[in-house]
Write a structure and sequence with these properties.
1941 residues; alpha/beta; seven-stranded mixed β-sheet; 59 helices
Length: 1941
């Protein structure tokens, strides 16, 4: 047993050991020399010397050589070498004989190695890059586990061949290591040397010296890997100190320094294994198998337990033998069935580990002093429990002897250490003033804490930590405040007046504190060492003097100023719970299996048989079976026949319960799906380019679930019914369940293959977005790196191996979505999931508003807890005190049995007795608890209430599979003997297997669910709806299985008291439920009498009413019923008396599981329920019931007081058992037949199930802290994590899910076994995986439906991303234009014929639908009609109501910044030759007379685009932009430079023309305003930008067009002069540019199939083409340079034959124009314009006699972009900040008035005013098309109801004939000198026509009136002068109006 090497004398070199010991003693500063002979034993603590404390980092190397802990404080002494002999070689790397020892030199030389020797590499400090080759006797080297190295040394020099070096000191001198410290082999012999395939000697694995493996760990695994503790990976085994302190001390551990051999991961295994593993020869796997077989083996006592000095005592103790357990087993870990040593590593669930973050100078008290303490024999037998000893401060003595009967844990020590490391948050206050809490105060506070614990409470480390933290804060409050308020002082302030507790005072103060607790805490003071106190405690235990004591505190305050202490938990209840909670799940299962297999439980069964006075239950069952066989079978069959008859006829009428509900998405699920989608979009929108949604065409997915067959089938069912496969286009019609299987991955042994094909699929389909959904994501967080089970159990660590593999992380088309109800373990400091990528289920209410109205309300953990606080109804969370009492009493009788075994056997016994009681053996109800009887009655009787036989489900949770099998067999046996097989089913629910139920019940289910399939079997628990059954649900953790709505009872009495938040909430989550929203819930549970039929008379003696209610919520209790309850209760309470009476070892009834002392009134154990019970009793008490009411306030005898309070909690249908028995049926049975009852399923939706919990868990769940937060929420969140610090705030009740996540991210760290442990970049953004999301929500709330809906809307969005909304409007004013002579142009002409085209008349009408609200332009060709153009739109509706069509993007589309594909990476600037954003700013100036000065422009030119420009040499000054020749015929080049003016659309503008141009070379320039240049440059780093001068920052599109055109003409002149020098004619330079809108998305061409050359019959079709095709077609047109403007149609789906029959038109062009800058040299855009500037320019070009040609066969599609452009022009008040819109009528005011000025350009105000209110100036013109307003030289939009006529004043211009017109008005806008009085006299005006003159200022206004002699024909008034509502500095426009005389 234990350390098999203990006590074996070393076989060689006694004198060397003696020498070393003497030398060590001389060097040691310790006054107590180490015993020489103890070194002759192999000492276990040597194997862990590196773990002896994090603080030893500095001199750890010096202390490695077996000096133990006594040298912890000795400083390293400088080493004095002996003088060298004369003539020796002293060169580094050579021996003293001058031979080369360096590995690089002699790697290929043959070396003679004697037998038993190994070649090793030595490191010399003076040659860090070399290894020196040595031969060393392998007996002095460690084995793979770091053990078994003999002390001393034996080696040879391989250089000179000298042999027999017996001292490493001598050898190191010989090989010239030249050390300044004492030579040590551990420090300098580093590597084994091995021959490679070529025979060369190379560096091999590290030599696994003791402790070196900890320093040599990979950093990802942490300096101490969890693989030291093989059994414990899944539960986070490593104690906090074993990873954190060493990592803090050793931050620079080399990566990859992994020790040799697989066994090196187990440095402590051999000390813990059984006797079969004597020389550590077995592999870890074999060791594991041995441990599984031998219950006495102690798998891996972790470092926590082994730190007591485990060497032998100075004298051989009589009990110390090689076979006996060594103290290495944890300083007293039992090795019996309990496997207790492992507890240390697991971190008991009750007292979770606390990490040591903060100071790393923590030393573990491993130095034992004094004699060992012998653990007495028969301790367990006498005490009935194993004491749990928590090491405290200082030294802990040896334990020897009967170590099986004690458990030793360092958790308290760690808690003390943690609480002494001052948090980083307080470091600012200085260590001098803010001292940590003293050891004495810690111990005193611990005593205070233990004293106030109740008899049924268990200490929690979290509580203690918070006590320490509060105490520390309060004691330093003044200093902290002082530091926070004042600057740091040079001198520390005086310490606080409160005197600290001294070690001398401590025992007295502790005794004083404990004096008030009735000896539940006992203080033992020692004089010399803790050994005295422990011996005293063991003596008192044996003598029975600590029977009432739960805790023993042992204090030794003699050690200088320090104290030694430990605390022993001796209370039977507490000790059992604490020791069992230290087991990992695997150990727990193994322990239970061992007890079952070895027959230890037989004694329990034998005891049960003594309880019944009639004898064994089985005998009773057999007797009952024989007596009633004929009677019962006939009666039962009769009842089943009578029930079967009305099933088909009237079942549907009576039972309103429908079958499975149809699949539909609830508002909550839709909201969550949309939140998920928005998070995915935000990843795509971020500048990191981690997700390119634009490149995906479809969605695929894979759902990973835990290995549970039911969960697997359940997920398939959800996928199948959701229709998601059809929506995603993954499957065609009629999806079968089998087809859905490929989308669900069960994480079992076969998962790897399926996952590989998923990865392969994702790799082969880069344009498919794969969503990898990890459901139940808190399951299996084990790191693949740390998993020792990879061979034996491949499923452990599988999640990490698959979902965190490199392929998933790097695949750009895989998004990982973790889905869980318990996300805490994924929210640590090292998490891969960004906090921004967390989606939490939304709250139902916000500020009292129901955000997502639903007809069902979720009933989860918080609602269950609320039900315990409500006084209006029975709580839904309950515990069974009589069950707990019996378990506690049996626990004392059978101390060696695990409590899970006892609990299971007791509960099964209760169920068996209850079944018998309900079946007629009424006396058996005394042998069950009231709760179990209630459950069983309702289970058996519920089907009788429904014509269809619908029943209820009872969930019996048995986590341990072997126990579940036992429970199943036993209950099935009892059911069979009672002939109840047809009444209810018993189902064994095992994760690894499917559901098996009897044929009879399958038939019933098929009938209820109307299933025809003969082969159908239920595969999910949901399909068991309505089936009366007990579901025995096994498995250590639920795996996400959903339960049907017929679940009425959730019996969790057997769950582990695993006080970890995830485990607790996971178990309680099984009961989560949706209740009908129309049911009035009072704080959750229903109120009185809700379940009764509304029409039913509230009868006072209708007993059977309660039977209908299933005994859980209805409170209508008749007097007779209450009386019966009382008598039944007191009758059944004989169980309590038996359980706590003499039959159970004479224990009194004050055991911790039952009521505490003082129970005569109302004990603490009842407080949670008694007030509500009393209130209900009073509420339901009628006048006749006063005398019979059994009031819990009375003080009955102790035995029944416990049960009396339980009365109201019991079933209201206890008597229903009588309906099956021959006795006492009476009126009850007749009432049953007469009553029109309600089906239990119909009621199921109205209330959640009742939940029964263990008392400990119940108290944990229902108790709250000061803020009202349930205590369970502040537990350690998961076994896989640990707290980062004791100095953490408490969770708050008001915290949202997001805040809780941030809390856990700050205050928890993963254990080394956690898969996130290697993600060490704490909190840095780059440590988060960009495509990983986390969805969390309460259990059973509908997360699966939400993420399936997310997949659907994600798919729709991707399709939507490949579509675009384009304007789809008919051309306007078609009916007004007369048919042209269309036949003059041939139908199929590719280009216009210039001669014919010149003869075409110009169409003045604007046909672009965006100008529907613009003024109609009249021409002489139009017949003068005055019809209305239809009702105008409201101006604000103009945009909103424009019609759009959704078009799928073609491969020739233009894109915005969200598009990234591989082809256009280089286009967008991702070019290997050029750095991103590498561009230069170039100035370019040209003079322009109209602007009055030289115009300074700037070009931003990326390096990759500089070839388009000419720069001066030298100097690099920008000279011109290169232009091609007219004669160029290149097919891969677009000749015309494209200019795109843009504002406010840096993200949404369609500037990516790569695909539109089909990859052709082209020059594209963005024209941007100066202030927008940086943002455009950021989004479009590879685009050329023309930056407008700052004076145009507030200008409109006219300014951009103006500058583009003028710059282009200036550039044309420069290029002509430059290329003229090269011999090229000026007219050969290409004169065209393209001016394109930033919303042009696609281009189309119409193909005509004509019947003949001039035939009117033709067919046509439209197709999408590239812009390259269109531009090259236009640029190839003959006589192209004779055209001034070329454009194309705007696309419309309503385009008809009329629009396309003419290939070309001479009319207005918009949006995308090809402009000849040479011909239009003298025609300018108006740089002041904001609106209609293209119409204005078109009219100017035409009046100049130039040709405008529109290619009608080409069309451009314009995308609807809702941001930027002209919509960014906002007109607001200049004075107030109020965002209130200003009405257009306010844009104009009288001069010098006090009108509020507006912040907008004057020109914009003018244009907007005229657009909406020009009728104020031109009243005669309104709807008067025959008399338009005359516009001179400028087109202005006067609104759709006023027609205009445009004329140009330029000489030789083309104007319409105006002789026919009588104008109703005249508008003169900034008229120049060409407009004269004689020019105006040509036109005729109506009498009363109005004139409007607009000028820059009032002076020029008057001058214009005089110059044009306007006063001759027009009458002006002073009040007719106006101005735009601008301030003076904004240069308003002025206008004057007059009337024609």
């Amino acid at each position: 047993m234990g350390n098999s090497y203990t006590g074996q004398l070393k076989t060689t070199r006694f004198e060397e050991v003696l020498h070393n010991s003497i030398e060590a003693s001389l060097r040691s500063s310790s006054p107590v020399p180490r015993p020489v002979f103890s070194q002759l034993y192999l000492e276990a603590e040597q194997q862990l010397s590196s773990l002896e404390g994090g603080s030893r980092a500095d001199n750890e190397e010096e202390e490695e050589e077996g000096d133990g802990g006594l040298e912890l404080s000795s400083p390293p002494n400088p080493y004095q070498t002996h003088p060298l002999p004369e003539g020796c070689c002293t060169i580094d790397g050579f021996c003293q004989a001058g031979k080369d020892l360096r590995l690089v030199s002699i790697s290929n030389q043959p070396i003679d190695v004697p037998a038993g020797f190994l070649l090793v590499g030595a490191k010399s400090p003076s040659l860090p890059d070399h290894l020196l080759v040595c031969a060393v006797d392998k007996r002095f080297l460690p084995d793979d586990n770091g053990h078994n190295a003999l002390l001393g040394f034996s080696g040879n020099c391989i250089g000179c061949g000298k042999k027999g070096f017996c001292y490493f000191t001598e050898f190191s001198n010989h090989i010239n290591l030249k050390l300044t410290t004492q030579p040590k082999k551990q420090k300098h012999l580093k590597y084994y040397l091995v021959r490679n395939a070529q025979g060369a000697l190379t560096k091999g694995p590290l030599i696994c010296w003791k402790g070196s493996e900890f320093r040599g760990r990979q950093t990802t695994a942490g300096p101490c890997s969890s693989s030291l503790f093989p059994l414990l990976d899944s539960s986070g085994p490593l104690a906090a100190f074993s990873s954190e302190p060493t990592s803090a001390v050793n931050p620079s551990v080399p990566v990859g320094a992994q020790p040799a051999g697989p066994a090196s991961d187990h440095p402590v295994l051999t000390t813990a294994t059984g006797p079969g593993l004597f020389n550590g020869k077995e592999s870890p796997k074999q060791q594991q198998l041995v441990k599984n077989r031998l219950s006495s083996a102690v798998p891996c006592p972790s470092a926590l337990g082994i730190l007591s000095n485990s060497g032998p005592p100075k004298k051989r103790h009589k009990r110390w033998s090689p076979e006996s357990p060594s103290v290495a087993d944890g300083g007293g870990y039992p090795q019996g069935g309990g496997n207790r040593a492992k507890y240390e590593s697991v971190g008991m669930s009750c007292m979770p580990h606390v990490g040591l973050v903060g100071q790393a100078s923590v030393t573990f008290p491993v130095v034992a002093s004094g004699e060992p303490v012998s653990v007495p024999d028969n301790l367990l037998k006498i005490c009935k429990a194993k004491p749990v000893i928590f090491k405290g401060h200082g030294n802990f003595p040896y334990l020897c002897g009967n170590l099986n009967d004690v458990v030793v844990s360092p958790l308290l020590y760690m808690c003390y250490q943690n609480s002494q490391s001052i948090s980083r948050a307080y470091e600012q206050f200085g260590a001098s003033t803010i001292q940590p809490i003293s050891e004495e105060m810690q111990l005193l506070l611990t005593v205070y804490y233990l004293v106030q614990l109740a008899a049924d409470q268990v200490p929690l480390m979290e509580d203690l930590e918070q006590i320490f933290l509060r105490s520390w804060r309060e004691s330093h409050l003044t200093e902290i405040r002082q530091y926070q308020q004042a600057p740091p002082q040079p001198y520390a302030p005086a310490p606080s007046a409160a005197a600290p507790v001294t070690s001398a005072q401590l025992p007295w103060l502790a005794g004083l504190a404990a004096s008030s607790c009735n000896d539940s805490v006992h203080i033992i003071e020692c004089t010399y060492s803790l050994a005295e106190g422990l011996s005293e405690m063991f003596r008192l235990l044996i003598e029975g003097k600590l029977a009432k004591t739960n805790y023993v505190v042992i204090i030794c305050a003699c050690r200088n100023a320090a104290i030694d202490s430990c605390i022993a938990v001796t209370g039977k209840y507490q000790a059992r719970i604490l020791s069992e909670s230290l087991l990992t799940p695997a150990e727990y299962q193994k322990e239970v299996s061992y007890e079952l297999v070895t027959g230890k439980v037989d004694s329990l069964g034998a005891f049960f048989s003594t309880l019944c006075p009639e004898g064994d239950i089985d005998i009773l069952l057999d007797k009952f079976h024989q007596e009633n066989q004929g009677h019962i079978s006939s009666s039962l069959s009769a009842s089943s026949v009578t029930k079967a008859a009305p099933l088909d006829i009237s079942g549907a009428l009576v039972c309103t319960r429908s079958s499975l509900e149809p699949h539909h998405i609830r508002p909550f699920q839709l909201a969550v799906a949309q939140k998920l989608l928005s998070h995915v979009c935000s990843i795509a929108d971020s500048s990191t380019q981690n997700l390119d949604l634009g490149s995906f065409e479809k969605v695929d997915f894979l759902i990973c679930i835990p290995p549970s067959e039911v969960t697997y089938q359940q997920t398939l069912f959800h996928i199948w019914h959701s229709g998601v496969l059809l929506e995603l286009g993954l499957e065609k019609e009629h999806v079968t369940k089998q087809r859905a299987e490929q989308y669900v991955l069960k994480l079992d042994a076969e998962a790897q293959t399926k996952f590989k094909s998923f990865l392969q699929n994702s790799f082969q389909n880069p344009h498919t977005l794969f969503v990898l959904i990890h459901d139940h994501a808190h399951w299996d967080l084990v790191s693949a790196v740390h998993n020792l089970y990879s061979q034996s159990d491949p499923s452990v660590g599988l999640v990490d191996r698959l979902l965190n593999c490199r392929e998933v992380k790097e695949a750009p088309n895989i998004v990982t979505l973790h889905v869980t109800s318990f996300p805490y373990a994924l929210q640590t400091q090292h998490t891969l999931i960004s906090p921004y990528n967390e989606i939490h289920w939304p709250a139902a209410y916000s500020n009292g508003v129901d955000l997502y109205p639903e007809n069902k309300k979720y009933f989860g953990l918080s609602e269950f807890i609320e039900s315990t606080l409500s006084g209006h109804s029975l709580p839904l969370l309950r515990y069974d005190s009589s069950f707990e009492a019996m378990v506690t009493a049996l626990g004392k009788r059978f101390p060696r049995l695990h409590s899970a075994v006892i609990r299971t056997f007791v509960l099964v016994q209760h169920y068996a007795a209850a079944m018998m009681a309900v079946s007629g053996l009424s006396r058996m109800k005394n042998y069950t608890s009231v709760e179990t009887l209630e459950i069983t009655q309702n289970l058996i009787n519920a089907p009788k209430q429904c014509p269809c036989g619908h029943g209820l489900m009872v969930l019996l949770r048995v986590p341990c599979s072997p126990l579940a099998a036992v429970a199943y067999e036993r209950l099935a046996h009892v059911r069979a003997r009672l002939a109840l097989e047809q009444h209810f089913e018993i189902i064994l629910g095992n994760p690894s297997s499917g559901i098996t139920i009897g044929k009879h019940f399958v038939k019933q289910l098929k009938m209820w669910q109307k299933i025809e399939d003969a082969e159908w079997r239920p595969q999910t628990y949901l399909e068991l709806e309505g089936l009366p059954c007990i579901l025995i649900f096994s498995g250590m953790d639920p795996h996400g299985e959903s339960l049907p709505r017929s679940l009425r009872y959730c019996d969790l009495r057997l769950i582990n008291s695993c006080l970890v938040r995830t485990a607790l909430e996971q178990e309680l989550g099984l009961a989560a439920y949706f209740v009908s929203g129309d049911v009035p819930l009072e704080k959750g549970p229903r109120n009185e009498g809700l379940e009764s039929d509304p029409e039913k008379p509230s009868s006072t003696d209708n007993e059977e009413e309660e039977l209908v209610t299933e005994g859980s919520t209805s409170e209508k209790r008749s007097p007779a019923r209450r009386e019966r309850s009382r008598s039944h209760d007191s009758g059944s309470s004989c169980l309590s008396s038996k359980a706590s009476g003499s039959a159970l070892c004479g224990e009194t009834s004050a055991q911790p599981g039952g009521p505490s002392p003082g129970q005569q009134t109302c004990g603490p154990s009842e407080e949670g329920r008694a007030p509500g019970d009393r209130q209900r009793l009073r509420a339901s008490q009628g006048p006749a019931s006063g005398s019979s009411r059994h009031s819990p306030g009375l003080a009955p005898q102790p035995d029944t007081s416990q049960r009396s309070v339980q009365v109201p909690v019991t079933s209201l249908s206890q008597l229903s058992c009588s309906s099956l028995s021959s006795s006492s049926t009476g009126p009850a049975a007749s009432a049953l037949t007469l009553q029109a009852t309600q089906c239990s399923l119909a009621k199921a939706g109205q209330q959640p199930p009742a939940v029964f919990l263990p008392k400990l868990v119940y108290d944990m769940v229902t108790s709250t802290d000061g803020s009202g937060l349930p205590k369970a929420a502040s537990l350690l969140p998961s076994h896989a994590v640990m707290w980062a610090s004791s100095f953490r705030p408490l969770l708050s009740k008001t915290m949202t899910s997001t805040e809780q996540s941030l809390y856990y991210r700050q205050w928890t760290v993963p254990r080394p076994s956690h898969m996130d442990y290697g993600n060490r970049a704490e909190g840095r953004l780059d440590s988060f995986h960009p495509r990983r999301l986390l969805l969390s929500g309460p259990p059973q709330i509908g997360k699966t439906g939400a993420y399936l809906q997310f997949l659907s809307i994600l798919s729709r969005m991707l399709i939507r991303l490949t579509e675009v909304d384009v304007y789809d409007e008919e051309e306007i004013n078609i009916n007004l234009s007369e048919d042209s002579d269309w036949h003059c142009l041939q139908l199929g002409d590719p280009w216009p014929d210039l001669e014919l085209f010149e003869k075409l008349p110009f169409d003045y009408l604007v046909h672009d639908p965006k100008y529907e609200d613009a003024s109609l332009i009249c021409s002489h060709r139009q017949s003068v009609k005055s019809e209305d153009r239809g009702t105008p739109r409201k101006p604000e509706d103009l945009y909103l109501r424009r019609q759009t069509a959704r078009m799928r993007l073609s491969k020739y589309a233009a894109y915005n910044t969200y598009h990234h594909c591989e082809q256009c990476h280089q286009y967008l600037g991702f070019h290997p030759r050029y750095q991103l954003y590498e561009s230069a700013l170039h100035a370019f100036a040209f003079s322009y007379s109209m602007l009055g000065e030289a115009v300074q422009l700037h070009f931003v030119i990326p390096k990759s685009k500089e070839h388009h420009f000419v720069f001066s040499q030298p100097g690099g000054q920008l000279e011109s932009m290169r232009l091609p020749l007219v004669t160029d015929k290149s097919h891969e080049h677009i000749k015309s430079p494209t200019f795109t003016p843009t504002t406010g659309r840096h993200e949404h503008g369609l500037f990516n023309l790569y695909h539109a141009m089909d990859g052709a070379s082209h020059l594209h320039v963005l024209v941007v305003k100066e202030y927008e240049m940086p943002i455009y440059k950021k989004y479009w780093p590879n685009h050329i930008m023309l930056v407008l001068p700052s004076i145009f920052n507030s200008a409109g599109v006219g300014a951009a067009h103006f500058l583009i055109k003028e710059l282009s003409y200036h550039n044309l002149e420069l290029e002509r002069s430059r290329q003229e020098e090269l011999g090229i004619k000026p007219q050969d330079i290409w004169p065209f540019i393209v001016i394109s809108d930033d919303s042009c998305v696609m281009w189309n061409v119409v193909d005509i199939d004509g019947g003949g050359e001039r035939s009117r019959e033709f067919s046509w079709s439209e197709r999408n083409v590239s812009l390259k095709y269109i531009m090259q077609h236009i640029e190839a047109a003959p006589n192209i340079t004779r055209y001034a403007l070329i454009g194309m149609r705007k696309w419309s789906s309503k385009t008809g034959r009329r629009e396309v029959r003419e290939p070309f038109s001479r009319c207005h062009v918009h949006d995308f124009i090809v402009l000849n800058v040479d011909l239009t040299q003298n025609v300018q855009y108006n740089q002041n314009r904001f609106l209609c500037d293209d119409v204005d320019f078109n009219l100017r070009v035409h009046s100049a006699g130039l040709l405008l040609c529109r290619f009608n066969r080409f069309s451009v599609m314009k995308k609807q972009i809702v941001v930027g452009g002209h919509r960014s022009l906002h007109i607001t008040s200049k004075v107030s900040d109020s965002p209130v819109a200003v009405l257009p009528a306010q844009y104009v005011c009288a001069p010098d008035s006090k009108h509020p000025f507006l912040a907008a350009p004057a020109q914009l105000l003018l244009e907007r005013f005229l657009q909406h209110h020009s009728h104020r100036f031109f009243p005669l013109s309104l709807k008067n098309r025959g008399h338009p307003v005359l516009l001179v030289d400028c087109y202005l939009n006067l609104g759709s109801q006023i027609s205009v006529c445009y004329v140009s004043s330029r000489p030789h211009s083309l104007n319409i004939s105006c002789s026919d017109f009588m104008f109703s008005g005249l508008l003169l806008y900034l008229c120049d000198s060409f407009v004269g009085a004689s020019f105006l006299k040509k036109f005729h005006f109506l009498k009363g026509a109005t004139l409007c003159v607009i000028c820059q200022d009032r002076n020029s206004l008057r001058q214009t009136v005089v110059r044009l002699e306007l006063e001759e024909e027009w009458q002006f008034r002073l009040r007719d002068e106006f101005q735009t509502a601008n301030a003076k500095e904004d240069r308003p426009l002025f206008f004057l109006t007059g009337r024609h005389i």
